[in-house]
Amino acid sequence: xxxxxxxxxxxxxxxxxxxxxxxxxxxxxxxxxxxxxxxxxxxxxxxxxxxxxxxxxxxxxxxxxxxxxxxxxxxxxxxxxxxxxxxxxxxxxxxxxxxxxxxxxxxxxxxxxxxxxxxxxxxxxxxxxxxxxxxxxxxxxxxxxxxxxxxxxxxxxxxxxxxxxxxxxxxxxxxxxxxxxxxxxxxxxxx
Amino acid sequence: xxxxxxxxxxxxxxxxxxxxxxxxxxxxxxxxxxxxxxxxxxxxxxxxxxxxxxxxxxxxxxxxxxxxxxxxxxxxxxxxxxxxxxxxxxxxxxxxxxxxxxxxxxxxxxxxxxxxxxxxxxxxxxxxxxxxxxxxxxxxxxxxxxxxxxxxxxxxxxxxxxxxxxxxxxxxxxxxxxxxxxxxxxxxxxxxxxxxxxxxxxxxxxxxxxxxxxxxxxxxxxxxxxxxxxxxxxxxxxxxxxxxxxxxxxxxxxxxxxxxxxxxxxxxxxxxxxxxxxxxxxxxxxxxxxxxxxxxxxxxxxxxxxxxxxxxxxxxxxxxxxxxxxxxx
Lengths: 191, 329
Fold this sequence. Notes:
The complex is a heterodimer. By secondary structure, chain A is mainly α. Chain A has nine helices and no strands. Chain A has helices at residues 3-13, 24-29, 34-63, 72-94, 96-102, 105-108, 113-124, 129-159, 169-184. By secondary structure, chain B is an alpha+beta fold. In chain B, the strands form six sheets. Chain B has a two-stranded antiparallel sheet. In chain B, strand 10 (296-297) and strand 11 (305-306) form a beta hairpin. Chain B is flat and about 105 Å long. Chain A binds chain B through residues 58, 62-63, 66-68, 71, 74-75, 78-79, 82, 85-86, 89-90, 92-93, 96, and chain B through 6-7, 10-11, 14-15, 18-19, 21-22, 25-26, 29-31.
């Protein structure tokens, strides 16, 4: 599997939000402002890359040799939770403004199934170490891409003349559905 | 044995390793949070009413500590809260004048409402105004479903025996929740020191407004009050007289001339006249220049006199006099 194919697959064809339907909480929650969407995207890229790396090591050097593959879920969740906690501390120290704008969604990365999802997909697809790290990174890039498109659209919608009962969440859901339809087109790509 | 030992050791070991890393990180990346924020959250009423404009009490506490907003915006907390915040922050307390809700409509009770139909729908004002413009004949008046009472968190609004909503000035904190709840916008949050109010919100034209008001106290747009007001505080806005409370001196002159009694003066009949003590007066003319009705006359450096016939008892001269030579009589 070459890098180009992996990128197109992770970013567009098997996009975490719109094709795999993972990580919908930040997709709806943090997509109101472009700035915080970008920050959230960066945090997710960071966490997904790191999570892919560490979970791959844990799977292949701990779980498989000791024959305890059935503990995969609990071991991965432990890893991701600690990782998010760590990232939260770093962001709070290094970028307080970003920490504020991310708000409650940063701890929510813990329960963001995209992060656990990428770790398990890496293992199930039998990816090598390098491919796993790349897949985690590119999955995060795909996540960020969709989040930023959504935030851009929603910022424009703020100024649009929307019927009163469709304002806010209802129009956001319709928007999310239309975007998923658009991304469905990528599934026809032959690489 | 290995079936239990190996998994427990593995997961336990992982947990321990992560725990150590996090413990190290929490020391390394420790962020100081201003302890004053927590202290101020303790003092605030914590009803999260949003009257201050911040998102909840915690948000206001943080904004106050950072000096982004004045310390006197908490309406429910009142004077005591402002003083305590000032104490914590070590700054002067600038207490804002207490504001309370005023309902600018005298209709809506059991007896004093002309009904177009008998409303039996959902018992909220928001629903009632949607059914052919409300159950009462007046298109601007109270629709008596008591959304304001439901919105009040402080038990300050009550129904009296006539079915009218009455604000209890002691309990009202001026948070504005009722004003937001009223779909007709009849409730205004105004300083408690303002004593004269136009208790009508009808923009209907003269005869029409009077015909539709069940209480017969509609503003008919005659502009008598506008002409009478000594400080030009009243203006006509779409056939309704509106008081500019920044200019209003609560003299009550408008209430006297209002032909429909739409203007209510809390101090009617209680006003006293100003009186200048001749021994103390230094003839500085400040009072004469500030009197809105030119009731004070006198030459420079000679004692002035107040004409009790003209004096309206607004008290401006008493405030302005530099030597405290003017008293109520």
